[in-house]
Structures are given as structure tokens and as C-alpha cells.
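Q: What would this chain look like folded?
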Amino acid sequence: MSLRDFGLLTLVCLVWASNNIVSKYVVSHLGLPPLFYAAVRFGIVAAATLPWLLPMPRPRWRLLAVASLMGGGNFALLFLGLKTSTPSAAAVIGQIGVPITTLLSMVMLGEKIRWRRALGITLTFAGCLAVMYDPRGFALSPGLLYVVASAFAGALGAVMMKQIEGVKPLQFQAWVGFASVLPLAALSAWLEPGQVGQALAAGWPFAAAVLYSGLVVSVGAHTGYYFLIGRYEANLISPLTLMTPLATIALGVAIFHDPFGLRMAAGTLLALTGVLIIAVRRNHVMPLLLAIRNRAQ
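A: My prediction, written as C-alpha cells:
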């Protein structure tokens, strides 16, 4: 990989990592409702990518299902999780989407795995459980359970996406925004009264955060990632994207003072080692899954 392209990949991973921090700030420190934040974000994505919306790829029902899972389902659940969980813990627990994707690809795509990827799956699950464990037992906090649900939605969408042919990255982004904004807006109106007033009270920090999340993270970084996937083997790109959770943890500790003790360090090491083992093995959906997982960070 050229130094220029490695620099681009590093920038993409840092942008993805910063999104967890920005999202945590919006839903926790500014107190904005998570569903409303997700709806506004996808409204911006839909507006920015509108020229690429048509023609609609087929099968249409599958495209809408995939776009909903990868967009509204994945991000809304993540933002709900970040309301009470730390960015560092969310970054590690989110890695569970990688083994889930591998298992789903076995069931839905007939993919075969051997002992190395089975070891990677085991290590990733063990690392996530270590992060959720404390001396008094497993801390199944609602926030981290939302993160697990977010990872599952993204994993299912990634596997289903593999069954759709010929969808370009910006076209897919357009449909993710279009399929997500109205359902999320309706859910927010139902479950989060007063959200518009809260957004107006938050002022420019909320506006800056949602523009950054929608344009720079979802459109810009995602497009850069697919540019690199088009130039290099996925087996080279995928392991390098582990910079994203590492950078998220570093930013979470530095900015929000996330706790990072021995248990968290051991769980992170196990989970990321497992993801690395899975990522370096050839498989059907890993490049797409890592794009989704990191874009949600």
C-alpha cells in the first residue's frame, strides 16, 4: 500500500472513531433523544446523496430491508446504547458483529469456516464477555445490550447485502438515508416528545455534530473506504481497520475518562485478536461488515 493510501485509510479510521465520541456527546452530554439524532443524521445523508437515489436496484424489498437494518436499525440502537454506555466499551462490544456476520453467512450463504475462523469467533465472544464481566457477575447493562442488538442488525444487513448485485456505494448510502429517515422520525415523534425544542436549545453544537456525523462520517469516510477496497485486497484493508476501535478507546479515555483497567484491556485484546483472525481469512462479507461496523463507531 502506498504511503498516501495508508494515510487515507488512517484518516478514515480516525473519522469513524471520532463518531462514537461525537455521538456520545450528543445523546449523553447534550441530552438529545437518540432516535431524533439518528433521524436528523439520516435526513442529511438522504439529502446529500439524493442525486444517486435512482434507478432503484432490485430486488426492491431486499434493498429496503438491508438499508433499514444498516441504517436506522444499526445506528438508532447504537445511539440508544451510547446513552448509558461508554464509547470504549461500545467500541469493543461492537466487535461482536464480526463473528455474528460469519455465523450468519454460514446459515444464509452456505459459507464454510475452518478452525482458524472458529478460534477467532471464540476469542471475540470471550473478549466481549470479559468487558461485560465484573467480580459480582455479568454486567448486562441496557446500554451494552443495545450495542449488541446494533451489531446484530448490521451483521444481518451485511449478509443480505451480499445477495444484491450492482449497488454502488453512494447509491446505497442514498437508500440507507431514504429508508431510515421517515421510520426514525415517526418513532421519535411517538417516543420522544419535545425533541425539536431540545435540539433548538442545544444550538450550534448539535448542528455541528449532526452535520459532521452525516456528511463527513457517513458520506465522506465511507466513500474513501470503498475507494481503497477497490484498489487493494480486502485481506489487506480489513485488518488495518482495527485502528478504529483502538482509536475510539483512546479518545474515550482521553476525552470522557472512560475506565480502562486490566479486565477491559484483556477483553479488548481477546476481542480484537479474534476479529483480526477472522478478517485475514477470505470470506464473503467481511469488507462490507467492517465498513458498517466502523462507520457506526
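Strands lie at 133-134, 137-138.
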